[in-house]
Amino acid sequence: VKKVSQWMESANKKDISNIISFFYEDATENECSALHRLACEARDMHYNGRVYFRGLIEFTNYCKNDCYYCGIQRSNQNITRYRLSEEEILKSCERGYRLGFRTFVLQGGEDMYFTDSRLCSIISKIKEKYPDCAVTLSAGERSRESYKNLYDAGADRYLLRHETANEEHYRKLHPAELSLENRKRCLYDLKEIGFQVGAGFMVDSPFQTYETLAEDFIFLRELKPHMIGIGPFIPHKDTRFAGYYNPSSQHTLILLSLIRIMLPKTLLPSTTALGTVDKNGQRKGFAAGANVIMPNLSPMEHRGDYTLYDNKLYTGLESSEQLAALVRNIESMGLTPDFSRGDYVDMQNAA
Ligand code: SAM
């Protein structure tokens, strides 16, 4: 594992694009299985087979942005917009806490209603009530000053996928008012402020190539985020990429393993999108080296409106039996479900 990791740490763009194209196009099933096994070994060196649970709260689907791939883009008139009140968010946390969760992930569109003062009030109330919990935010691009305010209010982690590290590709996925430069600035600011930071991208997004993927790997290697979110791009019917292709799990599984081997300590979720394109996708994600799962704690009445893509999987916890089934499923793979805060390995004692 160490040898392959070291090679990935210094590989150049051409080498990385070659290795990805090999596994996408030429590798046999046995070769792919060997890759996945190596990735699990890399994970288990640091996390010893633990799979961390995070409770996901989708707190708003209002968004000021118009990302071309995303179902909650501002120009989509066909969805019902909602935002949770502070009380509803705290109620979701309460339910999650009772179920055993010790990390809450607040994710939403870029909704200007959530000013610093509103978000800070929510964060500090969660931390006051549940001092043993981590709060992760995923609320898009904000100023450095705003990130600092959120951090000072008690937020621990921030997820902001870079989406693609290639300028031209970025412009094909986003309108001109959004820039890769600002996205990267946000990620470096977040890291400097002290957040545990997550970057990432969609697999098989429109116009993605082996070269753009190699640039993603090199960017991740430079940024060294604590978390990396990758999952299949899934077309949404109300976007320009409707019907773009029929997504599958295979490429995501390969990239999960390669990322795990390159950055063995990273926290790597087996995403809802992976479970949406393949009914065993999340299980396969763990067998490919992932070590995080984020079941949905959002109130049932709004779940159907947080539609980033078509046919989104309901990994809902409508009942505690469902959570118990998920736990058993993970245990049956020889892994250990872990409901602790689940910080990045180097920060587990510091937190
Ligand atoms: N607004 C915040 C942001 O931009 O980071 C958080 C919410 S955003 C909807 C979360 C992630 O959903 C994005 O980073 C993107 O990678 C993913 N996403 C959006 N549309 C998707 C699609 N059609 N298929 C798969 N993932 C998608």
Automatic annotation (TrEMBL):
SUPFAM superfamilies: Radical SAM enzymes
Residues that span the membrane, as ranges: none
Origin species: Lutispora thermophila DSM 19022
InterPro entries: Aldolase_TIM, BATS_dom, Elp3/MiaA/NifB-like_rSAM, FeFe-hyd_HydE_rSAM, HydE/PylB-like, rSAM, rSAM_sf
NCBIfam families: rSAM_HydE
Domain Radical SAM core: 49-271
Cofactor: [4Fe-4S] cluster; [2Fe-2S] cluster
UniProt-annotated binding residues for (3R)-3-methyl-D-ornithine: 138
Cofactor note as given: Binds 1 [4Fe-4S] cluster. The cluster is coordinated with 3 cysteines and an exchangeable S-adenosyl-L-methionine.
Protein name: Biotin synthase
